[in-house]
Amino acid sequence: MGRVAFTHVSKRFGDTVAVDDLTLQIADAEFFVLLGPSGCGKSTALRMVAGLEDPSDGLIEIGDRVVNRIEPKDRDVAMVFQSYALYPHLTVRRNIEFPLRTRDVDRKTRKELVGKAADALGLGTLLDRKPAQLSGGQRQRVALARAIVRRPAVFLMDEPLSNLDAQLRVQTRSELVSLQRDLETTVLYVTHDQVEAMTMGHRIAVMSNGVLQQVGVPQEVYDKPASRFVAQFIGTPPMNVFRVENRTDLVGVRPEDLTIDPDGPWPATVFLVESLGHERHVHCHTPSGDDVVVRQAGMTVSPEAGAEVHLNAAAGAVHHFDAETGLRNDGA
Amino acid sequence: MARKGKHKRVPKRLPRRRLRDALIGYALLLPSIAVFGVFVFYPFAKDIQLPFYEQPESFGAIHRTARYVGWTQWRSVFTSSEFRNTLLVTLRFTVLTVPAGIALGLLLAVVAHQKMRGITVFRTVFSSTVATSVAVASLIFFSLVNPVTGLWRVRVGGVSLLESPRWALISVAAVTIWQSLGLSFIVMSAGLQTIPDDLLEAARVDGATPRRVFWQITLPLLTPTLFFAFVVGSISSFQAFAQVDLLTSGGPLNKTRTLTYDIFDAAINKGDQNRAAASAIGLFVIVLVLTIVQLRLERRVRYVR
Ligand SMILES: Nc1ncnc2c1ncn2[C@@H]1O[C@H](COP(=O)(O)OP(=O)(O)OP(=O)(O)O)[C@@H](O)[C@H]1O
Ligand SMILES: [Mg+2]
After folding, report:
1. Atom of ligand 1 nearest to the CA of A19
2. Are residues A288 and A282 in contact, defined by beta-carbon separation less than 8 angstroms?
3. Which site among A53, B66, B143, B219 is 20 to 30 Å from A98 CA-CA?
4. With a 6 A CB cut-off, is A208 part of the ligand 1 pocket?
5. Residue A287: how many other CB atoms lie within 10 Å
6. Which residue has the higher pLDDT, B273 or A33?
7. What does each C-alpha distance from B39 to B34, B46, B284 come to in angstroms?
């Protein structure tokens, strides 16, 4: 029932193509993450599901209905905004209650549902406060409570963690995952943070410039990136992509897969060694003029800056991308 | 050590320079002080003084100088049925103009706030009356309802709108609302723009109809603006003069004799500046109270985000 489908959906704002021919299916009860850099069109895609933007082309379905012509209020979705969008003149209780009041839920049921949602998010003692009297983390919880209070078919979340500090973000991440597991409701989650995507999503979709690049389970996207863009967007430090002698395409190797090996095929010159305590990043120039990073365990003996070295990688860890299109090239 | 010494020396070393700075400062302020003195401070002081004296002319040619009468004249002005009538008319006028002006301005602002093609044309039209003065607006209305040549030769009970005791004040109020609509529209539009879009979007996704969004989100969040418009509108209604002077001169049967018009009439037409001064202080107190209320309550009606 909470299935969401985009079929050839595009959205143009004047000359800007925010979403370009997006076709995507999200299964019921799936935690689905839309991932991409700023301005890639992920919010626009989400807002089209909410009904806050009309697609220029294509169909959007929720459950078994085409919702293109359906008002946001009738779509049976709930949304958590990046800003939380709490109603500042209403108490926490009234904020959480709002989606119930608009649907004329009776008083007794309202009380019960608000209590449940507040308990689920630990807001019991804050119900009579106004949003201005809450911390960022508490506001975020109120926004979540307001979303879950009425069991909608789909939750839409637009970077809900981006206003939290790093520590709270990690904590809330896991809480969101278990909340979704308990509610068994479809979540469409938008973020530019690849760690959030990798850790939370059942499946992730990577977008760039309005175009869908790849859809898959996180490990698969990590292990077999469909394009140079995906390869370099996911993983820190990003995958090394460099030119080598006698090949027209590009070679991609993740920093942790690259080793310094006197018998390796790729010569390089070390120019910087960074130590992070538990690991080291050895930065090198290749003869072709590309910069690559080798990630080593903290215990390893690293070369000095200026050293001439050779690099190597296991066959399975080497990816190839077309130099022109950037697409994955497995045939070669 | 060096620091301490410096601190101590500052006042000692510089009296001459300070004096010079002060002189230059006052010299620069002089033009405004002079203008304010002549047109604001002196008249204000005089206005408080005048009601303590009785108009010399009222005693014929014998008393050329004004006679000190203490608080008697204050009392006689504020307890007179004329003053009470003026106050009542002014209140009625305020009640007629302020809420309707705000409501209409808000209505237009909500319409113009839509994302629609060509909406800027409407915005320009809606705010256009800002470029019109009350006097011009009054004259336009006056010629519209002119009993001989006007386009609206509406007659009620055998007389024109502005001659009807029943309709005169309503007509003056209508002109006032129309003339101030541009400003009201602009103020309300500015208010609407302070409401974050995502709140309205959240409400829509939360199941609210446009009507509910307006009454339960937009309007409450607009309280500071509404309050501001209410106070400023009341003050300007209490000071309404030109439209009364041009359209009805306080008539018929004093039904449009507002406070400001009465002050003008007493001082200029009847030549009794002393009584007029007392009324003016009355008006001043009312406006002062409104202003204080505005300043005091403004912070309370503001929502912190
Ligand atoms: N209302 C609008 N009018 C015009 N252009 C818009 C509008 N909304 C979005 N865009 C454009 O569409 C593109 C995609 O915007 P969108 O907000 O979907 O990006 P995003 O991926 O959510 O980025 P971010 O991570 O910064 O939120 C951008 O180029 C943006 O400038
Ligand atoms: Mg966004």
Report:
1. 14
2. no
3. A53
4. no
5. 13
6. A33
7. 8, 11, 16
| pLDDT tens digits, one per residue of A241-260 | 999 988 889 999 999 999 99
Residue nearest to atom 25 of ligand 1 (CA): A38
Residue type, A331: G
| pLDDT, tens only, B38-60 | 999 998 998 888 888 877 665 55
Query: In this structure, which residues have their CB less than 5 angstroms from ion ligand 2?
Result: A 43
The b-or-e profile of A107-139 (16+ CB within 10 A means b, else e) is eeebeebbbebbebbebeebbebbbeebeebbb
pTM above 0.90, yes or no: no
- Cα R_g (chain A), whole angstroms: 24
pLDDT of residue A241: 95
Q: What are phi and psi of B115, to 5 degrees?
A: -85, 100
Asked whether the beta carbons of residue A52 and residue B201 sit closer than 8 angstroms, the reply is yes
Asked: is B92-256 a CATH 1.10.3720.10 domain? The reply is yes
Block residue for tokens 């309802």: B145
Residues in contact with A18: Cβ distance below 8 Å, sequence separation at least 6, in sequence order: A11, A12, A41, A44, A210
Q: pLDDT tens, B137-181?
A: 888 888 887 777 777 777 777 777 778 888 889 988 998 999 889
Q: Does B201 contact A87 at a Cβ distance shorter than 8 Å? A: no
pLDDT digits (tens, 9 = 90+) for B188-233: 999 999 999 999 999 999 999 999 999 999 999 999 899 889 989 9
The fold of the A4-223 domain, in CATH, is Rossmann fold (3.40.50)
Per-residue pLDDT, averaged over B246-272, amounts to 85
A9: Cα within 13 Å, side-chain hemisphere: 29
Q: What letter represents residue B132's amino acid?
A: T
Rounded to a whole number, what is the distance in Å from the CA of B19 to chain A's nearest CA? 50
- Chains A and B: how many Cβ contacts under 8 Å? 67
State how far the Cα of A1 lies from the Cα of A66, in Å rounded to an integer. Answer: 13
The superfamily CATH assigns to domain A253-332 is Nucleic acid-binding proteins (2.40.50.140)
* Ligand 2 centroid – CA A218 distance (Å): 21
Q: How far is the CA of A85 from the centre of ligand 2 (A)?
A: 14
pLDDT band of residue A131 (cuts 50, 70, 90) is: very high
Residues of chain A with pLDDT > 70: what percent? 99
Q: Where are the domains of chain A?
A: 4-223, 253-332
Element (H, E) at B124: helix B119-127
The interaxial angle of helices B42-49 and B273-298, nearest 10 deg, is 120
The whole-angstrom distance between B290's CA and the closest CA on chain A is 25
Q: What confidence score (pLDDT) does residue B12 get?
A: 57
CA–centroid distance, B239 to ligand 1, in Å, is 49
Checking if the pLDDT of B184 tops 80, the result is yes
pLDDT at B6: 47
Domain edges within chain B = 92-256
Single-letter amino acid, residue A91: T
Please tell me the distance from the alpha carbon of residue B217 to that of residue B197, in angstroms, as a whole number.
11
CA distance B179 to A317: 76
* Span A109-128, pLDDT tens digits: 999 999 999 998 889 899 99
